[in-house]
Amino acid sequence: MVAELPRSGAVVAWGSRFSGGDCEHVREQLTQVKTIHASHLAFAALKEDGSVVAWGHGRFGGDSAAVQDQLQNVASIKACHSAFAAIRHDGSGVAWGDLRYAGDCSAVQDQMVDLKGLQSTRGAFAGLRDVGSVVTWGNPSCGGDSSSVRALLTDVRQLQGNQFAFAALRGDGSVVTWGDVSFGGDCSSQEEQLRDVREIQANDLAFAAIRADGCIVTWGHPNGGGGHVFPRPPTLA
Q1: pTM assigned to the model
Q2: How large is the C-alpha radius of gyration of the chain?
């Protein structure tokens, strides 16, 4: 399935109609579109007026009817494998899609305020709040449950997610992780190295952090490059 956003702001889609390749039933709504986001088998379009149009496989977020009245004044959208999440301009959030894989955020609705960013894994979302705390929901095996590290998730400056785990960078340069331990949800093996971190990045299976001294530290699955420390390269004369 493919969706294209021409300069006109209209949308053209093609491919399997079960996966979002046919947008005919919502075509009249697909005008003045700013961005298009894709789950595994569905699309969500964010329009200039802050409304959202979804189509494709209903279980994968292609049916937003249950939350359509909340999809107004939307500022940004994030997708995972089977669901979407949106932040509105007032900092509140909403999710839809597969209820087993992050399509339902009702359990944390009281924390879905003052959001300024979202990250996703295959089956979970993590939202960064203005106060530096983090709210998570979705499949626990993909990082949807951060209760074990909740006390550490303060003064968070950056969030990253790979397929199965999340990592948070705090203001003091330390790193907090949760999710599947095989894919970076546990960084204890590199704990001594993860100090004075300035930035975190992720691929599907692992994480990499760059420290203030230029060293790069990785953790997660070895097939994704996890488990290494790369010293800062010497400066060339």
Answers
A1: 0.92
A2: 19
